[in-house]
Amino acid sequence: MRIGFLTASDSTSRESWSGTHYYMARALQKHCGEVSYLGPIKTIVKSGAGGVGKGLELLFRKRYWHARSIVVAMRYARILEHRISKQPLDLLVAPLAVAEISFLKTELPIVYVCDSTFASLVNYYPSFSHLLGISIWEGNTLERRALRRANLVLYPSKWAAEAAIADYHIDKAKVHVVPFGANLEDVPDQETIIGKKLSDRCRLLFLGKYWERKGGDIALETLLALEKMGVKSELTICGVVPPQPVSHDRVTVIPFLNKDDEIQRQKLRSLLLTSDFLLLPTRAELFGMVFCEAGAFGLPAVTTNTGGIAGVIEEGKNGFLLPLSARGADYAKVISGAYRDGQYYHELVKSSRAAFNDKLNWDAWATSVKRIIQECGTVC
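and the corresponding structure tokens:
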């Protein structure tokens, strides 16, 4: 197949969609066919509806979501139609590309890939809260058009797939659940992971860009609760700086690691390899690529049962799912139980890596996508 990889972002960068665009395109190239990049599109989103949107924001003190405006979507369509016409393609794969395909005119079949719907994001993610009514209307309009326009719709979790069918009444026959993979360059070999030993103190890794949404305060509570229980512990916070300074001997803060930089990428690899648990008490999550990455290192995740996380974490296999109401003491109880039982922890390491081997990798994703395309007859 000749595949047009359709997104306004720069899919050659590991920073685009946390690396998902980059690794998804590579997997398609490896398993499905020749990939041609139709992005990036350098049209500034705010130039489309920025003036009007900014005025509405000032007037009503609510947000206008420029990236999901109809004006921007129409601009994307014109640019992409021109680029598509210049090369022979059999299929378009459009990840996270609602605005890009909503008004797109093409005879090519479209495979739309996303981790959520607009309706499920509103008032769930902080950045999708306090939106103007016009912005919600535009967001839902674009989502509905994109879902109806697509020949196949792929989500990584049952939570997202069911939301699309329920909220936008699309044909469930074209909706499929295919878990995403780990956005990693250098996966450790199986023997290294299976031979992993518990650290002399419980090493917790908090990995995320958003302190409040990822539950950073609960992660700190967990460290303190473990110490009260007599479990020597340390916490590494990577990807964000806490809003309030943290003065604790066993807390390390690494503000940011760039996956496009080899040295920083290896630093992230070392963190995953030497930690005992991924601790992410997230308040809102659509899927969680970091859980796939943790699995590659046999790293059990202790997290929240919210959004699409249950599509990647299986209770007691590659991690633990706690209720949204859980606090640090609850997380500490789960972690201490697994940490103090060496045999049980070793089994967790093996089953976490097995989940990665079986389904939470991009090879598995691309193989499944190819099968779905062939079975559905999207490409003749």
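(Above: one complete record from the training split.) The mean pLDDT is 93.
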